[in-house]
Amino acid sequence: MSAISRRDFNKIIVASGLSFMIPSLGGVMAADRQKRFLLVILRGALDGLAAVPPFGDTNYEKARAGLALPNNAILPLDDFFGLHHSLESLYQLFKQKELAVFHAIASPYRKRSHFEAQDIIENGMSSPASTSSGWLNRAVESLVGNAEIQASALAVGGNVPIVLQGKAAVNSWSPDVLPEPHDEFMNRVSYMYQSDPLLHSLLEQSKEMDMIAMTGDNQKKNRNFTNLIQTAGNFMAEEKGPMIGVVELGGWDTHANQGLENGILSNKLKEFARGIQAYKGAMGNRWKDTVVLAVTEFGRTVKMNGTRGSDHGTASVAFVAGGNMNGGMVRGKWPGLAVQNLYQERDLYPTSDLRALMKTIMHQHLNISKSKLDSYIFPDSQNVGYFKQLLG
Amino acid sequence: MNKDERAFYTINRFGLGPKQGELASVRNDPRGWLFDQLNNMGSYRSPAVLNLDYRKIVSEFQQAKKNKEPKQKKNARKAIKKFGFQYIQQELMACQHTTHPLIERLVMFWSNHFTVSSRKQNVIPLIPDYVTHAIRGNLKGRFSDMLIAVEQHPAMLLYLDNVGSVSPNSVVGKRRKRGLNENLAREILELHTMGAVGGYQQSDVESLARIITGWGINKPTATEYATFNFRNRAHDAGTKVLLGTEYHNDGVEEGIRALKNIAQHPSTAQFIATKLVRYFVADNPPPRLIKNVAHTFLETDGHLNEVMIELIKNDETWRYSKAKFKNPYEFFISTLRALPVEISAKLVKKSFQALNFIPYTAPSPGGWPDDTSHWATADALKKRINWSYRFTRASQKEFGDAHQMIDTIVGKALSSETQKMVRGAGSKKEALALLFISPEFQRK
Fold it and tell me: How many Å lie between the alpha carbon of B161 and the closest alpha carbon of chain A?
């Protein structure tokens, strides 16, 4: 019995999204092959009230005593909301209408466990443990009509996160922790693989991927966020590059000494903004076909806690950026910071469902049908509506 | 296949990869080698210390929590992580040295089938006890024995949130306005027994959830281990209908009876048989073989050894060479068996980092997937190449005659290309690295 059937072999080649051997995808695609979507998962619960301070809310300074930003550290988005000044490059995007901010937004999950909440923003369900596949993987399935040929998706930075796990074959790339063997050794490996179609093609793919990853001035070995997201950009900017990318940035769980205009959170925000800027740069003239969505699993308490930080909350912010956005707006109904307007008298009240935003992007940017989104990709989400005109 | 190839195939497909000299002992009767191991199931003891005592680290964490001392809590967390790592080290040692690798593979299979994950910190300390008692302790029995042990184990009850599940009509439920948590009940049906298409309804999930209300734990202390505890005050006293059978209030016995019934369901036989055949035979498990194995499962009331004997006896099992791909853990273990270096914490940490894999961190209760496309990716292969090169380079062991060593590991089971490259390598360490990265070593 042969080691691998021709059908499986093709699946693997195509799933790479990178090999020159991809057959033309024909007319069965739902989305334009040139579109790009990057999901950035901000793990640890980003304090949305610090990233996008609602300075216009009369209760802001009192409710957030100890954590309220001084005016000179706020970049005004309008007369109500601002950006933490560490998000300078996002501010530029906002002014160019390439960024939309969604506030008071959350998943349907109302407990405050990181790992459950992350599961739910990744599995697209209304409860954490319901499925072993992610909504983005299900979206990848829907991207093409022909089940055999799968649009490519790439996780950069390590293991494939739940959001990209599922039936559709996806790829991953992470910087090598160990140095590469010398050329002579690699030649021997190539020789060994020549009558093994699977390993041969994987080795070729890894060489192609390494070449692409090395584009620009990022270090191949470096595991920092800017390097990873820029590498994602390098891959996705290729003509036959992956349509979907996922990167992650942790370290948002600021229970202690969160800082104000400077400090732990400020540094994290700088890192995030730097990464988005690097990604836009890497995408070059594909930026106009690109949408980036950054989400976090929940927000943080309005009130400062006993260690000059904040504890787990509910609603937070989400950022959507791209070269063809209907941006320059802070969207979502603002619930207010008066005690009676808070969730359980402690958290920002969620007035939008994150799934609405995810569905809207999948529909408006990638042309995935609402019926698929409402029932399969985000099961039981018929009652979760869509945002109007996110793009263009 | 020549004799060496057949032995090599058996050792990889059903074992953990060849130790030096193992090929020679299997060569004449591969199937017999497997039957012998199954026959010894009752008396097998793993060659490592696996049931680590968790009471101290758990009580230290509980203390730190009580004291609300953040530094103490941080240290306690670190200690728990370290404990988890120590356990994995022990498991690796067991796998490296065992003379019964089929049994260790079965432990891996069932631990993954009944996954608990270290993503939940309170589960980590209980993992050694879980694998030792619920899994290893029930390999020689019937499926229902293992199922009951697993679903009553504190690790599983915590992992899938049954500890907090309370019947709204119970004493506790009424007082604290708490309710059912369906998580464990759903995963029992969907992942542990009948499978998603096994024919149960949402109402069955709810019924099972109600049946196992009250299934909780006695928390561990500095002197006491965690144990199963049935709380009648949280239990649903009503009548439940599960898969067409009525269950009246019978305390903890309801759940035991329910699990036994589910274990005997034809869908359970089909689901378990499918998973076993996929694990040991091919990613696309042949339906006829599944049918035979499922039949044996039902006929023997789920007797696990009998089911494995049927699988091994069946000629169809032996028709699928190269049809499975080692996952990173299996790959790592196979190199440790071939080159039996000391398994230090440093080696384990660095290897997991380099290979991008840590056991007991499966992202969902479904466990790690079991098909080639998940593990055979460009990035994963690159990681193995870099790691194999580094591992053999850094190994302190003296190789002596590398060619002789390779002979005792793989004999004549290598393709001509692999042979040529391995034997023509520039150094002994490189020869071994090439062996580890060869096509033959990636598959099982």
Answer: 10
Q: Is B403 on the interface with A (CB under 8 A)?
A: no
**B 218-277: CB under 8 A from A:** none
C-alpha distances out from residue B58 to A376, B75, B77, B115, B124, Å: 42, 12, 9, 21, 10
**What's the ipTM?**
0.93
* Cβ-Cβ contacts under 8 Å, A307 against chain B: 70
Residues facing A30 on adjacent strands: none
Chain centre distance of CA A311: 23
Which amino acid belongs to residue B372? T
Q: Which of B378, B387, B434 sits opposite A209 (nearest CB)?
A: B378
* Alpha carbon A2 to chain centroid, angstroms: 40
Q: Give the closest residue to A142 by CA, choosing from A386, A324, A375, A388.
A: A375
3-state SS of B69-137 is CHHHHHHHHHHHHHHHHHHHHHHHHHHHHCCCHHHHHHHHHHHHHCCCCCCCHHHHHHHHHHHHHHHHH
B-contacting residues of A 325-384, CB under 8 Å?
none
- A332-368: per-residue pLDDT in tens? 999 999 999 999 999 999 999 999 999 999 999 999 9
Is A316 near chain B, with CB under 8 Å? no
- Minimal Cα–Cα distance from A174 to chain B, Å? 7
Out of B70, B160, B385, the one facing A189 most closely (by C-beta) is B385
Q: To the nearest whole number, what is the mean pLDDT of chain B?
A: 94
Q: Is A214 on the interface with B (CB under 8 A)?
A: no
Q: Which token pair is B349?
A: 């940490």
Rounded (10°) angle between helices B304-313 and B30-39:
170
Give Cα B254 to chain centroid, integer Å.
28
Q: How far apart are CA B145 and CA B124, in angstroms?
A: 23
Which residue is closest to B184 within chain A, CA to CA? A129
The answer to whether B163 and B230 are in contact (CB under 8 A) is no
C-alpha angle A365-A153-A41 in degrees, rounded to nearest 5: 75
**Chain A stretch 3-62, residues whose beta carbon is closer than 8 A to a beta carbon of chain B:** 3-4, 8, 11-12, 15-16
Which CA distances in Å does B207 have to B203, B204, B210, B262?
A: 6, 5, 5, 13
List phi, psi (to 5°) of A155: -100, 125
Distance CA B420, CA B397 (A): 24
Judged by CB atoms closer than 8 Å, whether chains meet at B426 and A184 is answered as yes
How far A203 CA sits from the closest chain B CA (Å)? Answer: 6
The pLDDT tens digits for B305-347 are 999 999 999 999 999 988 899 999 999 999 999 999 999 999 9
- Alpha carbon distance A178, A221 (integer Å): 8
Q: Who contacts A189 (Cβ-Cβ below 8 Å, separation ≥6)? A: A181, A203, B385, B421, B434, B437
Inter-helix orientation angle B101-113/B30-39, to 10°: 70
Residue numbers in A near B373 (CB within 8 A): 8, 11-12, 15, 169
Nearest to A221 by CA among A154, A273, A157, A153: A157
Mean pLDDT of B125-146: 97
Q: Is the pLDDT score of A145 beyond 70?
A: no
